[in-house]
Specification:
The chain is of the alpha/beta class. The protein has one domain (about 5-310): Alpha/Beta hydrolase fold, catalytic domain (Rossmann fold, 3-Layer(aba) Sandwich), CATH 3.40.50. Helices cover about 45% and strands about 15% of the residues. It has 13 helices and eight strands. It has helices spanning about 45-50, 80-95, 105-120, 120-125, 150-165, 180-190, 195-210, 210-215, 220-225, 230, 250-260, 275-280, 280-310; strands at about 5-10, 15-20, 30, 60, 100-105, 125-135, 240-245, 265-270. It has an eight-stranded mixed beta sheet with strand order 1-2-4-3-5-6-7-8, sandwiched between helices. The chain is globular and about 55 Å long. This is Alpha/beta hydrolase. Keywords: Hydrolase, Oxidoreductase, Peroxidase. Pfam families: Abhydrolase_6.
């Protein structure tokens, strides 16, 4: 059964969240979407987790501030720092106890890293598994947009300047009439060799919901983040890292550095895929997530047996 709820952050921003799965599940999964997208990015993975039957986890998806059905954010709060704090608050409100598996696509993965950096005690006490999909721990260090370095540098400067203009444009959203004109550019930038009409349509609708302030405002924080040291300090948390070899925003070098920093990470490179792996390669992403959840379930059962043994002794 799906439950829709709103969480009011300390600064008054309302986050739209959806919760499904058994209330008494031993593990909770929280899935975080990417920049200019929304919680619907994960719908195929939510369906896959529901298919686990008695072992199904509780699943939380939410629209980050300034995206989807959540309320707009101030320009000063359009930062990864704030998103890391928001994730901590979501966990406190919707999953206050028990182990959690965190999955992040693109900026969602960077949000998880920021949560680990800013709330290391809570992260260490709660997180039982990680899924990083098409993301980076090194800002725009490796971003080339699939272009030669000289052209990529020019495009990055133009993108950064344009983002600054959009960030000052308030809560206006791209007009629906403009979205079809954006389709070819987004198809090229975000997808690989194959792109289903449904996947592109969902992406366009998600972008159409994002205020211009969000489209531009988060750009500076995303480009500057450096969190490899944070990942290296996490320890033995089971993790999966996925990337498409046609990803123009977070290319394979980004995933390789994340996997190298995490001592127990499995790296998967999806041939012919671009940046939108949850939509482009839903089966591969779902399989990786399900395996992480199964490992978290096993660890939880073992911990429970140890606790029972100590009490009996």
């Amino acid at each position: 059964m799906l439950e829709r709820t709103e969480i009011v952050m300390p600064d008054g921003v309302r986050l739209h969240a959806e919760v499904s799965g058994p209330d008494d599940a031993p593990v909770t999964v929280v899935l975080l979407h990417g920049w200019c997208l929304d919680r619907r990015t994960w719908r195929r993975q939510v369906e896959a987790l529901a298919g686990l039957g008695r072992r199904a986890p509780r699943v939380i998806t939410y629209d980050i501030r300034g995206h989807g059905r959540s309320s707009p954010t101030r320009r000063s709060s359009a930062t990864l720092d704030q998103l890391g704090d928001d994730l901590a608050e979501v966990l406190r409100r919707l999953a206050p106890t028990g182990p959690v598996v965190l999955g992040g696509h693109s900026m969602g993965g960077m949000t998880i890293m920021e949560f680990a950096h800013r709330h290391p005690g809570e992260f260490a006490a709660r997180v039982a598994g990680l899924l990083f999909v098409s993301t980076t721990a090194e800002g725009h260090t490796h971003t080339r947009y699939g272009l030669p370095e000289s052209l990529a540098g020019v495009l990055r400067v133009g993108e950064t300047l344009g983002a600054g203009v959009l960030a000052r444009s308030g809560a206006w959203r791209p007009h629906r009439a403009v979205l079809p004109a954006l389709a070819p550019a987004l198809r090229w930038l975000l997808f690989g060799d194959r792109c289903a009409d449904e996947a592109l349509g969902l992406t366009l609708r998600s972008v159409g919901r994002a205020p211009l302030r969000s489209i531009g405002g988060f750009r500076a924080s995303i480009g500057a983040q450096q969190r490899l040291d944070t990942l290296a300090s996490i320890g033995d948390v089971p993790a999966a890292v996925l990337v498409g070899d046609r990803d123009r925003l977070t290319p394979t070098a980004c995933a390789e550095s994340i996997a190298a920093a995490l001592p127990h990470a499995a790296l998967t490179v999806c041939p012919g895929a671009g940046h939108m792996l949850p939509l482009e390669r839903p089966d591969e992403v779902s399989a990786a997530l399900v395996e992480i959840v199964r490992r978290a379930n096993r660890a939880t059962r073992k911990a429970g047996r140890r606790t029972s043994y100590r009490k009996a002794a």
